Amino acid sequence: KAEEKKDTKAPEAPKAEEKKDIKAPEAVEEKKDTKAPEAPKTEEKKDAPEAPKAEEKKDTKAPEAAEEKKEAPYFPIKEDNEPVAKPVAQPVIPPPPPPVSKPFTAAELAAMLKKENIEVEDNTELEIDDVNNMVIDKKGTLIKYIGTNEVINIPATIVTIGKYAFRGNTSAKTIIMGDGVKYVDKFAFAHCSELQEIIFSQNLETIGENAFLKCIRLNEVNFPLMLKSIGKGAFGRCSSLRKVIFPGKMKKISDLCFFSCRNLNKVIINAPIESIGSSAFSECYGLKDVTIADSVTYIGESAFSWCHSLTDIVIPSSVKTIANWAFYGCNNLSDIQLSLNTKDIRDDAFCGCENVFNVKIAEFDKPDVSADEIRKGHRLTIKVLKQINRKKAERYAREHGISTFFL
After folding, report:
1. Which of 158, 218, 323, 366 would you label with 98, given CA atoms 20 to 30 Å apart?
2. How far apart are alpha carbons 42 and 292 in whole angstroms?
3. In sequence order, which residues have a C-beta less than 8 Å from that of residue 78 and are 6 or more positions away?
């Protein structure tokens, strides 16, 4: 019995603990509600069931205080309960004009240009045209453009656009040359990645080497009649060019002149041009239409190599020499017209033109063509076909009674 009594009293102990747990939070709550909240004791409120109510009260009061502050932002109260006057808006004062820059000395300009790899002689007098953002010299040479305009007007007082003058410019989209410009030096506009249009001076005579190299957005060029020469690689890799018509005073198309202009589709070579330089139109993948004037006497090495879109070509009788690989890799070329006057056709001139099936000799169209001319014409045809496909050449020889020993 004594043990049973002890067992009955033991469970009563937890009850006493429960009572203590219940009373403890109430006491804490009452004290917390009456006094200012303390940071460490706020965590205990979460355990009590009435804690959310206390939070609701705090939430309702906080927005009201915020709203009251927003209603009268310009009337704060001083310690003596006197309202502060509403601040007066300050007038907008324009920024002061930039200070007038001190003119550069020749030495300072030379140092600046040296960073651009622009060579200037020590005794050259330089000045800055602030209106056009250009460094020029007394001879009328535009040494360097230092602006960021999209449309650039080159004044008529400029005679020469110097080497590297605009190289690497990424803002210029249109260049308008004054009619005083006669010379564009090498690399003058190279790598102008945004240049789309250029209006040449009507008195322009010379465009230097690589002058417009890799102007990838330049889509049209209209050469003036006075233009006499275009330097090596002048328009190389101008991948947006579509059409080129050469003026009437040029005598030579330089090497690599329009190399890798991949979207160029039409070329008109007018008199008095006499020679087409090496690789002048190489890798012009879109070139379909080529007109060669009867003033041309020489077609250089690889002049039209890898022109995949070229389907036919007429070589005028004035052409004496077609150099090695002149039409190499023109794999869609099917029709070739030649003349007996073109006696120097190098061995690989038409190599890789696998789809050629018609070689026409111009003299065959004459009403009084002689037997000797016909024989020479057949041999010239075989000479071309042998470069393309030996079996085609042998078959043609048999059909026209030409000895295979000739092959």
Report:
1. 158
2. 95
3. 84
Q: What are phi and psi of 240, to 5 degrees?
A: -100, -5
Helix or strand holding residue 214 (H, E): none
Rounded-to-integer distance, Cα 163 and Cα 144, Å: 9
Residue 186 makes CB contacts below 8 A (sequence gap 6+) with 163, 208, 209, 210, 211, 231
Q: How far, in whole angstroms, is CA 90 from its chain's centroid?
A: 47
- Per-residue model confidence as pLDDT tens digits over 354-407: 999 999 999 999 999 999 999 999 999 999 999 999 999 999 999 998 887 766
pLDDT tens digits along 254-277: 999 999 999 999 999 999 999 999
Tokens of 326: 């002149």
Cis peptide before 272 (omega within 30 of 0): yes
The conformation of residue 129, written as its DSSP 8-state character, comes to: E
Task: Compute CA 237 distance to the chain's CA centroid, rounded to the nearest angstrom.
Answer: 11
Question: Which tokens belong to 97?
Answer: 């004009």
Cα distance between residue 205 and residue 181, in whole Å: 9
Is the model's pLDDT at 135 over the cut of 80?
Answer: yes
Cβ neighbours of residue 51 under 8 Å, at least 6 residues apart?
A: 45
pLDDT at 108: 66
128 burial via Cβ count (<10 Å: 0-12, 13-18, 19+): middle
Contact criterion met (CB below 8 Å) for 299 and 277: no
Q: What angle do CA 122, 162, 276 make, to 5 degrees?
A: 135
Other C-beta atoms within 10 Å of 354: how many? 14
Helix (H, G, I), strand (E, B) or coil at 52: helix
